[in-house]
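Subject: two folds for Thursday's group meeting

Dear M.,

Sorry for the delay on this. The cluster queue was jammed most of the week, so I only got both jobs back this morning. I'm pasting them in the order they finished. Each block is the input sequence followed by the predicted structure tokens. Could you check whether the formatting survives your parser before we put anything on slides? The first protein is the one we discussed after the seminar.
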Amino acid sequence: MLGGGLRAVLTCVDPRQLPEAFVGRPYDTALLADLPPGVDPCGERGEFHTFCFGGPIFTTEITVQVGEIVSRDGFCFVDLLPRAVSGSRGRPARMSGTEDCDSPRIPRACARGISWRSGGGVRSG
């Protein structure tokens, strides 16, 4: 999958199977190398869930940044926020580039506006 150009981020982690620190990380070779023994690399036993934002089936990448991390119902979730493109004057982000998915998490104070809330639908705030 990775060799074919898939780009994804972990949006939900079951902390009984995988440490919370994995939520919000890009799904890449570094993540695969860091998985503890016994964790399926595709999350087939519910260890984690991903959001795909790029790859050969996409005409353009979906530009997101990692937002607030919350624990709910025994799972850890991360918000994915649209990332404004320079010069957009607050308009919704265009679908290009994904640098922020590889960046450290943004502070809670920045997690405002519309977000795609993992496991909870769309939220505006």
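Second protein, same layout:
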Amino acid sequence: MEVLIALNVEAFSDTITFSGRKNDTLQLSKRLIISESVRVFMDDKLVVVEHIDWINGKITIPKGRYSHENKFIIHYKYYPDTFPISVGPKWKYLPSLKIKKNSDIKISPIIKPKLNKQSKNSKIFSSGNIFRQLNMPEMGSSEFSGGLQMQLIGNMGNEVKISGVLSDRNIQLDQNGTTTSIETLDQIYLNISHPSFSADAGNIMYNHEYLKDHSIERKLVGIKNKFSANSWNGSSVYAGSRSIFHTLTIQGEDGVQGPYVLYGKNGEREILVLSGTEKVWVDGKEQVRGHNYDYTINYNSAEVFFTPNILIHSQSDILIEFQYTNFNYSKLFRGGAVEKDFNAN
């Protein structure tokens, strides 16, 4: 699909008497001209142009060929709608400040901050991007969406490292403005690590195995940490869980790739699926999420769409496991463990 952006174009003509200056330049009345449309005539004869400054509307003619009495008629087209011809901070275009040596104005010397050893060793780098996407289905409606992704990584000194991620790949945008709460972002994660300890904050995955064949696996929002000192090892977690685990069986429909709507345990429609918690099977085979794979999911609207890689029909058995929140309650999840290795030297 190609998106064309049309700009308004108007035609104009200038009659200019040559001034005979050294630069042999003709200044047009308009700026932002279309170079291909410029035609310069003198005595009904076409004049060859050496250079066209289309942004500032200036034309350079061959030097030394014309006198100051010659009149030129220039026909051209231009863009009447203005748009920025320069980018960057405006302070760069301010005139330089000139101060005489004998002036009474006193300028304080620049004092460089003193950095301690820890700040000198600190090197933190960040990067990110914001994107916008315009969807135009064949039915005629359109949808404007976007997303963001930011990364943070670095060394804080004293063997302390930090890393973090803030991302959301599906933010619905509206012409009246959009406000997104931090809880609805796909991923918020911050990690601080050291040889003796580590801490994770934000969207964390808690995994704990006990009695060999038993395990606890939950997606939480909070903080967890691990530490080790001498022969002691420990861990703790303090987080909130607003998720409910649910399994949903759906019968496919002929020629319908989606959306297949997810409901809560009590049949409620207003739910928010936690990102990354879903597992989808079709006829007993687990599917892979992604536009280039088997399915996509809108976590905000709780809808699943299948790609052309897998065709859904009336005999398709769809099984979906997922965690969701219905905003009605929140559960506190906390715990800790301390271990000692008596065999350590």
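Two things I noticed about the second structure. The mean pLDDT is 76. Residues 121-241 form one domain.

Cheers,
T.
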